Amino acid sequence: MTNAILLASAAGSTALGLTVMLLGRRSSANWLFFAGMIALACGSVFDARAMRTSEPEDIRFWIDAGLTVKSFVPGLWLAFSLTFSRGNYREFLARWRLALAATFTLPLLLTIGFQEHLVEEIKITENGKAFWLQVGISGQLFMAVRLVVFVLILMNLEKTFRTAVGTMRWRIKFLVLGLCVVFGVKIFTASQALLYSGVNLSFAVLDASALLLGCVLIAISYLRAGRSEIDVYPSQAFLYSSIAVVVAGVYLLSIGLLARLVAFLGGDTAFPIKAFLMLLGMVGLAMVFLSDRIRQKTKRFVSRHFQRPLYDYRNVWRSFTEGTTSRVEQIDMCRAVVNFVSNLFQVLSVTIWLVDGKKERIGFAASSAIPDADGIRLQPSVADAAAVIQAFRNRPEP
Questions:
Q1: How far apart are CA 154 and CA 211, in angstroms?
Q2: Taking the model in full, what pTM does it have?
Q3: Is residue 303, in this structure, part of any structural domain at all?
Q4: Is 194 exposed, middle or buried (0-12, 13-18, 19+ CB in 10 A)?
Q5: 150 is in which domain, residue-wise?
């Protein structure tokens, strides 16, 4: 059963990565997604081999090979989190270039250059199966780097999600949730390795189960988005009020307390399953809280039954002023207005078209549903634009 879960997660992540690469556009984000999914798949395969073999030399070989492959995971997924659905991703890659270089080189250096201190002892059961890896100083540093980078990945994905509005947010919601499942569990396993200076190989099943669930959620997201690209433009400011950090902290605290309780009661072989069920519950709550329809229905219920106004015009004007005051470029101003209107009225599709009366042209400016590249292709011809402009002139009132 254990090997079946590990191999199923490897097959699922490989299939999803290949599907996105073959059917999607050849963008930087898709290439990074493909490479990241292959790295996760290889890690699951090597974990399965290590848990299946009974020879100590073979166990160490597959564990070392798995850790080497896993050293690529932080850098690939951090780069993906900086490029996914971002129209200005080159600015973020330039700003994060030193951090990216460190996340690629430091884990690889620890796994290859200091391999003798990575795993100092492998405890084997009576049937010859490995169950505990005692990590050395380089192993602890390796887990610490993974823990920090995984939190940064979730913060970047959260920033992209919070910047997106309307249909774009609807399309990427399940991908963000899926990756939160995958890296939320990895944050837990890395923290446990740091706490106990070792790795329980049973947690590999927990990682694989999270990867399987994440693949399902990510597949739903790509089915929603289709072949269309999504472009949002997050600010360069650091995300201080990150929900990802709070949720990661709450999850780690909850699992830590559960682990202490299990140890106090004498241990529980089903602890990874219980931890995964707790994660499933948190994902379910996140899906409810992130649903635009549920939020809109909640606001409507409060407004109707508690006689509270749905919109406070003072807060609306304050939000509009704060969101548009610093916008000096026309396109930036249009994006801010699109986001404002979509959030205010809880509508998925808001688009602004700019009219040039002198040249008789209509140009695409910004949208919460149409990517920039598609919007430019959808611009009407000169004849169609002239007809639309004339129709508005003939009937200026709504």
A1: 15
A2: 0.74
A3: no
A4: middle
A5: 2-290
